[in-house]
Amino acid sequence: MKNRRRSQNVLQRPMVRWSWFFLLPMVSAFAIGFVWPFLQGIYLSFCEFRLISDAKWVGLKNYISVFQDTNFMRSFGYTAVFAVVSLAIINVLAFMVAYVLTLEIKGSNIFRTVFFMPNLIGGVVLGYIWQILINGVLSVVGEPLLALNTTAGYWGLIILMCWQQVGYMMIIYIAGIQNIPGELIEAAKIDGANNRQLLRHVTLPLVMPSITICSFLTLTNSFKLYDQNLALTAGEPSNKSEMLALNIYNTFYGRTGWEGVGQAKAVIFFLAVAVIAMVQLKLSRSKEVQA
Q1: 38 lies in which domain range?
Q2: Same-domain status, 103 and 25
Q3: Which of 62, 122, 262, 268 is the most exposed place for a label (fewest CB within 10 A)?
Q4: pLDDT tens digit string along 195-226?
Q5: How distant, in Å, are the alpha carbons of 210, 223, 266 from that of 273?
């Protein structure tokens, strides 16, 4: 036993000694590609600039301009409402589909593939496809097209998001449901639990880790939505369907002299999403149980 431990220590010493060498490329890439641009972005949010080289420090002026921008505040509210609605609809639909597909029905693997496929299509392509479909339906029923219809634009984004994300979340829920020990299901059935009681008192509590993951992904994806928003509505009519990411893009690239304000919006956007996601994670994890 002692000889085995000694041989293991001899083998581990070179690995520990040279571990930094193997970690260096990854750490360097992370620092160059993320940490440095992130810190530089925070600095530029306090500056006026056209190019990074001519940045001029202006303090909190950009942040004051952000909160005085009514379009930004409207986009923030619009995005928050969109995130809450899509969070509920996507997770309910994804769980329902996953639950049905774990009941050992014929062709379940084919259905899983079909439901997952929309997630493989790019957001811009999806946006233009659904723009054509929704405008076609609106023209048939005699309603204004997306460019003039705020309500249709909002629900169009919800439908697009659901169609793209439900299949991905379904896979996570299927993994969570299949991870439930069969002994617990059998014990509950022996105690007289029906399918509804099994779902409520056994399945849902034990699938809470999957619910936590899916809620986190849905919430962050909803706040970060950009390409689908650009392709489907482009913020029309009159920026009323403009979400946060599109608002930041339009501010930074579409308004000369507002680059610093756009950068300040991006910092606020990051902080808001980080805080909301952390609160959601804490609330969800507090309800998790161990099998």
Answers
A1: 2-44
A2: no
A3: 122
A4: 788 888 888 888 888 998 999 999 999 999 99
A5: 20, 7, 11
